[in-house]
């Protein structure tokens, strides 16, 4: 009887397959991963998605081997994180672009901004610079282009004397009641029922954009079986169709 029970447990383990644990922010990352589950199962892997509401913890968890991979960031942010934390995390492949946009509850165009109005931007180095670049591209400010990662200290012209409020990315949608404008990453915007395509006053375009979101693993796992299985499952026609139909241009496939 014990032998039969043991054999049944072994068989069940084989049928379940090996587990891949991946960290992701809720929207759109976790939603996209749900679509890839069936393909991974056919490759012999069970996908466990752990949801995070920030960018720091998924990288720390990956470095500490609590995750096999994560999916919630673009490469410039990853490189900055590695440099600041001494981690060795590497991108495996790009999945989609989330155009960063500027939102408001009080104005409908940038021309309505008044002297001294407050603008909320992300406080992490990469996304802060990206947000300022978007505002500069749309004529609100001018920046010192010699600086790689720009902050409000690198603004060289600010005709409307705009005040910049630096906040954690996930809190930016909640700041819309307190500021005239907030520049928000699309995953946090979508999670707050804001559509980057229809609700933003201005947003990035996808032309030559370096901010595609990537699946990341530890450096020694870039060519591993789990990374390859994730690539096969996510870079599929089924996932591309889901992104296009679900987000209708608010999220753009990078493959």
From TrEMBL:
Pfam families for the chain: Lipoprotein_9
InterPro entries in the cross-refs: Lipoprotein_NlpA (IPR004872)
Record carries keyword Membrane: yes
Entry-linked Gene3D superfamilies: Periplasmic binding protein-like II (3.40.190.10)
Keyword Membrane among UniProt keywords: yes
SUPFAM superfamilies, per the entry: Periplasmic binding protein-like II
Membrane topology of the entry: Lipid-anchor
Subcellular localization(s) per the UniProt record: Membrane
Keyword terms, alphabetized: Lipoprotein, Membrane, Palmitate, Signal
Family the UniProt entry places it in: Belongs to the NlpA lipoprotein family.
Name of the featured protein: MetQ/NlpA family ABC transporter substrate-binding protein
Organism field: Campylobacter magnus
């Amino acid at each position: 009887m014990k032998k039969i029970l043991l054999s049944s447990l072994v068989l069940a383990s084989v049928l379940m397959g090996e587990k891949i644990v991946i960290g992701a922010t809720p929207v759109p990352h976790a939603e996209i991963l749900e679509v890839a589950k069936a393909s991974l199962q056919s490759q012999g892997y069970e996908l466990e998605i752990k949801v995070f509401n920030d960018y720091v913890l998924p990288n720390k968890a990956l470095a500490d081997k609590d995750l096999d991979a994560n999916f919630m960031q673009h490469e410039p942010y990853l490189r900055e994180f590695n440099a600041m934390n001494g981690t060795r995390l590497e991108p495996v492949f790009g999945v989609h672009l989330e155009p960063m946009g500027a939102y408001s509850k009080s104005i409908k165009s940038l021309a309505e901004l008044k002297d001294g109005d407050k603008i909320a931007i992300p406080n992490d180095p990469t996304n802060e610079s990206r947000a300022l670049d978007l505002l500069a591209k749309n004529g609100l400010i001018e920046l010192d282009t010699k600086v790689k990662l720009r902050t409000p200290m690198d603004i060289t012209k600010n005709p409307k004397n705009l005040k910049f409020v630096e906040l954690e990315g996930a809190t930016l949608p909640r700041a819309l009641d307190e500021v005239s404008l907030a520049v928000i990453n699309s995953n946090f915007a979508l999670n707050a029922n804001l559509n980057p395509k229809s609700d933003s006053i201005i947003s990035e375009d996808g032309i030559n954009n370096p901010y595609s979101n990537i699946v990341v693993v530890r450096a020694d796992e870039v060519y591993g079986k789990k990374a390859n299985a994730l690539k096969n499952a996510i870079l599929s026609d089924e996932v591309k169709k889901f992104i296009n139909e679900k987000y209708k241009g608010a999220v753009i496939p990078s493959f």
